[in-house]
Amino acid sequence: MAVLRSVIRSVGAHLPKRVVTNDDLSKIVDTTDEWIRERSGILQRHIADENELTSDLGAAAAKQALIRAGIDPVEIDLVICATATPDRTFPATAVKIQNMLGVTKGAAFDVQAVCSGFVYALTVADNFLKAGQFKRALVIGAETFSRILDWSDRGTCVLFGDGAGAVVLEAQPQHGTREDRGILSTRIRSDGRFEDLLYVDGGPGSTKTVGHLRMNGREVFRHAVQKISGVIEETLVETGFAADEIDLFIPHQANKRILDGIAKKLNVPPEKIVMTLDKHGNTSAASIPLALNQAFEDHRVKEGSLVLMEAMGGGFTWGAVLARW
Length: 325
Ligand code: UT7
Prior knowledge:
With 325 residues, the chain is an alpha/beta fold. It folds into two domains: 3-174, Peroxisomal Thiolase, Chain A, domain 1, CATH 3.40.47.10; 182-324, Peroxisomal Thiolase, Chain A, domain 1 (3-Layer(aba) Sandwich). It contains ten helices and 13 strands. The protein has helices at residues 22-25, 33-40, 54-69, 93-101, 117-130, 154-157, 217-239, 256-266, 277-280, 287-297, and strands at 3-14, 19-21, 44-46, 78-82, 107-111, 136-144, 162-174, 182-190, 198-200, 213-215, 248-251, 306-313, 317-324. Oxa(dethia)-CoA (UT7) is lined by residues 31, 35-36, 39-40, 115, 154-155, 158-159, 217-218, 220-221, 224, 254-255, 258, 282, 313. Oxa(dethia)-CoA (UT7) binds at residues 31, 35-36, 39-40, 115, 154-155, 158-159, 217-218, 220-221, 224, 254-255, 258, 282, 313.
């Protein structure tokens, strides 16, 4: 039976030029390269210049994805930007990016699910495309987390970085089988009981400030392995794929130890897990498309690859997307 699927036509990414190493950070907070490396797996992060905004990073990633897909921006009718660090409280960063790309038709809006933002945004776009409401979507994850970090808090400032990634999705008729290309399954979850474990202590409607990121790292860690493994298992059961049929796992890049824990729990060989957090730390909503882009550039993902993306973040929010490239 013919069905519409959201086929991933291409991926692109962009990182700010400025690299900040663990040793650089040890000059501003009481930390060491050894601690950051061992506890998180992060070696460096990219930090945006003052005049470089989330929209600039997102638009650069989107342009690369459009060029690689051979699609003119005017053919895009949906732009979704996953971000927790928008240029302005409003309008949405997606609208700014839409304008920067010269797209004037369709709709553009932001999705806010912090580190799960890209999984949420893919899910939203997939539903619009499958419903036939839009034909081609740009789904972007873009963040400038450096702007909301407390640079005196060693427990958080060493973990995050700035960056962006994007994919172009296109609604295409497929056969309705497990061999189909495109997004095969999406699952998104949230549980607001955990909002105080990872949050920003400001906002336009409360403090009238932007605020700084606060995290109970140990507790977030404890929930991450369990919640992410759970949603991956649900996705596999729903779609009937076995874990060893997945060609590549593209996880949200928060902590190497979390990724190792998930791999162990699900019995996934490490070589199937794309790990890029050593190069750019936790870039929140940008981390999955940045990892996907790396896998694409390394020829690890190619037509027919079965790819599982997953994330968990503030809220808590979490989720997974299974797609065939
Ligand atoms: O993307 C959203 C989801 N976020 C995450 O997934 C993050 C989840 N959490 C984590 O990745 C880890 O919990 C951290 C990397 C944040 C921390 O690792 P940990 O093994 O859980 O360390 P901890 O928080 O239990 O702290 C251990 C010690 C503490 O000292 P005491 O109390 O044992 O004396 C901290 O004060 O490490 C100390 N510490 C540091 N030491 C050197 C905390 N941050 C640092 C630091 N440098 N940067």
